[in-house]
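Progress note, sequence design subtask.
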């Protein structure tokens, strides 16, 4: 049994609605206090749960946080299919609310710092958040290959997530400005599309 299947088995006692409430509360607390200050006691109090219930459903804080973040994602790349990879990427930007994206960027910056200090959090984020997101990008890219618009041997195809996330993370460092939709659309057209040699 995979870790994801084991986690799903542990969570079967909660309704989807209750799970959604718990995940929303965890993300809200993360935004308020950050990962280090977030405690299972605080989650239990915010969600009117017992700590025993939380630990019965999740192994601990790292797994709960990573699962909550995955659940809170509004759109998955694999769910977008406009018929063109370039427009798929633009649509991915369009489907993210600008204010929410800014909050998420702040949250992920804090989590990235915490993850490099905490091996359990790093592992949980890789397994429950990052790997599923990368697999979703692979589905998006493979559709473009199947349509014949992206060469199967294009070496840049494996680096689409790196380009998108890297561009978003670099702007605050280089320009002192958070990325916004206008920046993201320009970045896709100027960097990602030429690298992929889309036809």
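Output:
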């Amino acid at each position: 049994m995979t870790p994801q299947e084991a986690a799903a088995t542990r969570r079967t006692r909660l309704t989807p609605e209750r799970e959604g409430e718990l995940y929303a509360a965890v993300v809200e607390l993360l935004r308020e206090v950050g990962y280090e200050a977030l405690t299972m006691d605080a989650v239990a109090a915010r969600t009117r749960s017992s700590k025993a219930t939380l630990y019965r459903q999740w192994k601990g804080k790292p797994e709960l946080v990573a699962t909550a973040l995955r659940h809170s994602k509004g759109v998955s790349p694999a769910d977008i299919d406009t018929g063109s990879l370039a427009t798929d990427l633009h649509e991915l930007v369009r489907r993210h609310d600008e204010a929410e994206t800014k909050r998420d960027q702040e949250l992920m910056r804090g989590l990235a710092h915490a993850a490099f200090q905490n091996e359990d959090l790093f592992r949980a984020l890789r397994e429950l958040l990052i790997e599923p997101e990368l697999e979703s990008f692979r589905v998006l890219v493979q559709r473009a290959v199947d349509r014949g618009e992206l060469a199967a041997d294009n070496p840049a195809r494996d680096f689409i997530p790196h380009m998108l996330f890297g561009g978003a993370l670099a702007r605050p460092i280089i320009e002192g400005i958070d990325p916004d939709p206008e920046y993201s659309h320009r970045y896709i057209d100027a960097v990602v599309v030429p690298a992929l040699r889309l036809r």
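The two ends are 42 Å apart (CA to CA). Work on this subtask will continue into the next period as scheduled.
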